[in-house]
Amino acid sequence: MGKKSIFIILTVLISQNINATQRYEAEGAIVDENSVEVIQDQNVSGGSYVNMKEGNLIFEISVSEAGFYALWASYSQPYDENGKIQNLTINGSSSGQISFPYTENFVQMKASAKIKLSKGINTIGITHSWGWVNIDYVELTAYEAAPFNISSNLVTQNASENTRKMYSFLKENFCKKIISGVMTDRTMENDGVNTPFKVETQIEVAWIRDASNKIPALLGLDFMHGTGLNSDNSWHNDYTKATISLAEDIFKKGGFPAYCWHWKDPSKSVETFYTESSGNTPYTDFSLINAFTDETCESFNIESSEYKAIVSDIDIVAGYLKILADKDIPVLWRPVHEASGKWFWWGSSGAKACKALFIFMFDRFTNHHGLNNLVWVWTTDEASDALEWYPGDQYVDIIGRDYYYYPREANHGSLVASFEKVKDIYDGKKIIALSENGSVPYPDSLVSDEAGWSYFMPRYGDYTMDGWAHDNTADDWNSIMNHDYVITLDDMPGWENYEVFTKPIVKRSPLNKDISVKITNGLLSIDTKNRKVQTVSLYTLNGTHLSTLEKSATGSIFRFNTETMSNGIYLLRVKTPEGIISGSVMVN
After folding, report:
1. How far apart are CA 461 and CA 442, in angstroms?
2. Which of 185, 380, 529, 552 is paired with 142 by a 20 to 30 Å CA distance?
3. DSSP string spanning 50-63?
4. With 70 as the cut, is the pLDDT of residue 215 above it?
5. pLDDT classification of 522: cutoffs 50, 70, 90
6. Residue 20: band (very low, low, confident or very high) from pLDDT cuts 50, 70, 90
7. pLDDT per residue over 454-494, tens digit each?
8. The dihedral of CA 333, 339, 343, 345: what is its sign?
9. Nearest to 343 by CA among 377, 311, 379, 290
10. In this structure, are residues 569 and 356 in contact, taking their beta carbons and an 8 Å threshold?
11. Would the pLDDT of 552 be above 60?
């Protein structure tokens, strides 16, 4: 028998503006005992609360003026220490998700910093996704707008001219228009010689083109087959080469190449990136934590097989990216994505290990390999521990949110609640994008709700090409791609024509070109060779600040005591009036 959809209706009519907090008790709802339960408790507001179980809540209210409001919820969630997620709908359209952290006691939290209500009657839904959250009440308050404060400079300070152009275009159009994108699956013809597709003949792109007469401006690619157990065979090699060909083609046509990396087991024991907890088979038990000296993840164990396997794979992918860098083709680079879900091995060892891995990759790509063509994208969730996973502002250009509506169904809402939540978590310092998604938000909804996602990129296959859930139909694509708010490939100015006017970019140089580093008698000595230096700072790989020296007592020599430091790799940053010199140093 199919599962029934049960709704709890709370009816509250208000005729005045919301100048003060308005509270709506959950126990005033009509309850179906098969899906939810009202529990008496004199310690909560109104004397009872609703255990949602597998059910839904729909609050029906009326406001006298259309506008934006903030939504708060009093809840407890004693069921899952990893947190629970429920869907948030406004007038039946998806506004995003609400993450409910573990708490045995009732607490109040901001469920959504921004929801848009129409004049008159509206519905606000907290509906089943992972289920099992206790709701005491919800409140509406006035929406408080906060501005973005996004840097004009990339975190790679010697970024190439075209990389700066790409970032500048993203920043210029952020919250003004949305850039269309699609994720690819097949990258080459099945013609016996694996001829790479052109952009317009790639399967997902061709489907969108046929539906709308438009081509997405952003093309999602994957280094999935670039490393791993079978990466040396000809088909896998041809697949990866075809992604590079497509990246070059989309850029030459004026668009955006975007890469992720479903990083297969570095030990090459099994060809997968999934962990046991994902429920997928086969799965890998590769342990990232074993690449470190201990569970603090502040130092790598450079003799470990795990560390050596990780470095080997990073260097392979760096080689592929270098092919594009040598042609000054920039890439939106989104590594170790969806880590906090722990369904991929790079997240299964926890936040500290994953964070250190991202920073290590950044350092090795930029300083060891000299890659200057990457716009770094970090994929976040909206959980209370999101910042524990975050590598840091100095390593990330764009915050991406991978959003799939669950249970899976077509829902083209703006996801403004999720947009505002991510903005709030990261203090409005970064561009925010739908870095991977199911249904594409309808442009009219984005404009109306002021949900300023930088770009969208639906998953390949039936997510893009009207599968069983009808996430994105041909009619959807025709409407979306021909909307004035959406930037398609033919809307792009051409990178050779696009000019960016910014302050001069200060180059970041490898340490060994500008200063010398050595360790003697328990002291790490940095000789700045009489350069004018403001500060010299030392960090662990996970970004923990260890020490900063403002000036040297011995001329150009700065010294750090290493006797209390674990063996491993550390990050060194030398700040000068001309810019920052950075690199890694080995303590052993």
Report:
1. 20
2. 380
3. EE-TT-EEEEEEEE
4. yes
5. confident
6. low
7. 999 999 999 999 999 999 999 999 999 999 999 999 999 99
8. positive
9. 379
10. no
11. no
Report the pLDDT value the prediction gives residue 29, as an integer from 0 to 100. 59
Give all domains of the chain, ordered by start, each with its CATH number.
7-142 (2.60.120.260), 163-409+431-439+453-491 (3.20.20.80), 511-587 (2.60.40.3080)
**C-alpha–C-alpha distance, residues 187 and 194, integer Å:** 9
Mean confidence (pLDDT) of the chain: 89
Residue 282 Cα distances to 197, 273, 276, 453, angstroms: 30, 9, 8, 35
Mean pLDDT of the region 258-277: 97
Contact 98, 111 (CB under 8 A): yes
Per the CB < 8 A criterion, the answer to whether 584 and 569 are in contact is yes
Burial class (CB in 10 A: 0-12, 13-18, 19+), 554: exposed
At 29, the amino acid letter reads A
* Cα–Cα distance measured from residue 366 to residue 157, given in angstroms and rounded to the nearest whole number: 9
Strands 431-437 and 398-403: parallel
Site of tokens 């950044």: 362
Residue 310 tokens read as: 């990780």
Question: Does residue 555 have a pLDDT over 80?
Answer: no
Per the CB < 8 A criterion, the answer to whether 60 and 122 are in contact is: yes
Amino acid making up residue 183: M
Tell me which of 129-133, 219-223, 553-557 is least confident.
Answer: 553-557
DSSP state of 197: P
Q: Is residue 566 within 8 Å of 299, Cβ to Cβ?
A: yes
- pLDDT of 7 higher than 60: no
Q: For 500-513, what is the mean pLDDT?
A: 49
Closest CA to 196 of 252, 226, 240, 256: 240
The values of phi and psi at residue 47, to 5°, are 85, 0
Q: Provide φ and ψ at 431, rounded to 5°.
A: -60, 140
Handedness of CA 213, 218, 220, 221 (dihedral sign): positive
Positive/negative CA dihedral, 270, 276, 278, 282: positive
Place of tokens 């041809």: 238
Q: Which residues of 164-191 are buried (b: 16+ CB within 10 A; e: fewer)?
A: bbbbbbbbebbbebbbbbbbbeebbeee
How far is CA 366 from each of CA 185, 315, 428, rounded to the nearest angstrom? Answer: 28, 12, 25
Distance CA 57, CA 8 (A): 5
CA angle at residue 475 from 473 to 477, to 5 degrees?
A: 70
Residue 514 has pLDDT above 70, yes or no: no
Alpha-carbon span 106 to 569, nearest angstrom:
44
Q: Which of 239-248, 371-380, 493-502 has the lowest mean pLDDT?
A: 493-502
C-beta neighbour count of 68 within 10 angstroms: 17
Largest separation between any pair of C-alpha atoms in the chain = 80
Nearest to 141 by CA among 61, 21, 60, 24: 21
Q: How many helices (H) and strands (E) does the chain have?
A: 11, 27
In a 10 Å sphere around its CB, with 0-12 CB exposed, 13-18 middle and 19+ buried, how is residue 324 labelled?
buried
Give the helix, strand, coil percentages of the chain, each rounded to 5: 25, 30, 45
Section 394-415 average pLDDT? 95
Choice among 90-104, 222-236, 247-261 with the minimum mean pLDDT:
90-104
